[in-house]
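ENTRY TYPE: protein
WANTED: fold as tokens:
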Amino acid sequence: MSTAIRPGGETPHDFLQIDALLDDEERLIRDTVREFVGDRILPNVADWFEEGTLPKELAKEMGALGLFGMHLDGYGCAGTNAVSYGLACTELEAGDSGIRSFVSVQGSLAMYPIWAFGSEEQKQRWLPGMAAGDIVGCFGLTEADAGSDPSSMKTRARRDGSDWILDGTKMWITNGGIADVAVVWAQTDGGIRGFIVPTDTPGFSANNIHHKLSLRASITSELVFDGVRLPDDAVLPNVAGLKGPLACLNEARFGILFGAVGAGRASYESALAYAKDRIQFGRPIASFQLTQRKLTEMMVKVNQSMLLSVHLGRKHDDGTLTSEQISFGKMENVRSALEVAREARSILGANGITLEYPVIRHMNNLESVITYEGTNEVHTLVLGQAITGIPAFN
């Protein structure tokens, strides 16, 4: 068989040579994370997915690599640029969406609000341990009846002398069952506020959600607060209202728009390798016109998504990235990755539904990713408002 000419060089996914847009440090960080995923995640993730578990000890390994809060400055954080953080998310999600979710939740949803809105005492108490992976965090915003409309949350914190009493429930919380601390958003008489809640506080409990068919290599939980008493210094002092949690979600969505490229890329690469090896009618199925069209469409989507990600990453680094542009990236890149995974599954045929190949795992995971951190529909309406000036929802 002749060797294909690959304009991207060594790897079939970099057709447009997007690598040339990265600097040496960005490539080094990407390659380091890629090696970690290859050595530590890929040999094990199919079993974790099948068993519905994720080893908590991964936290210290990731902390040692500087992956937690890596785009934040100080307090033991690596202080990289946004593009480097995004590239790390790409490589982590090429392993599994659950692995990238672990890092996103820890850094962007649990550490970021403490870093951005916390007191100096709160930062010193929590961030170094979280950066090292000694402390695992989670983010409590979503409720069973308040997903896309977080302003309707029913979890409430009320004053009792100098303390706060927290009551309510949060749902679909990544890392909840293994977390040491939760950043929880609740209604108060002064509006929505954020609270730092150690998970060993009396009245706190976490119930893991089972029977999932997506994000199985990830711990997802319900958090319950039954008269949880917190000191006054548990509240994040420097933010009130929904702008606090929404700022955190923007940070997480930025990681997702890069991460989805990894899931799509891994699915495409698996399909390409399979198509070149799979013989039917005396020839590899990669020689068939319909298969080549599928592979071409997948390659184009992966390259377009990475170009978009790097562009938005540069805008993040120069301070010009808007929340609407993040919605653009999250919506389009996740949608594209899901389309790639579904097409890759079709190329693998019956083999595509087994965990011997990564495709069905990525496809199932992306069904969650297209829903969380803002559904595809909500991001569509965000963009609709941006271009028309007319909101389609409250």
User: Anything to note?
Assistant: The chain has three domains: 18-132, 137-234, 243-388. The domain at 137-234 is CATH 2.40.110.10 (Butyryl-CoA Dehydrogenase, subunit A; domain 2). The two ends are 59 Å apart (CA to CA). The first helix runs from residue 24 to 41.
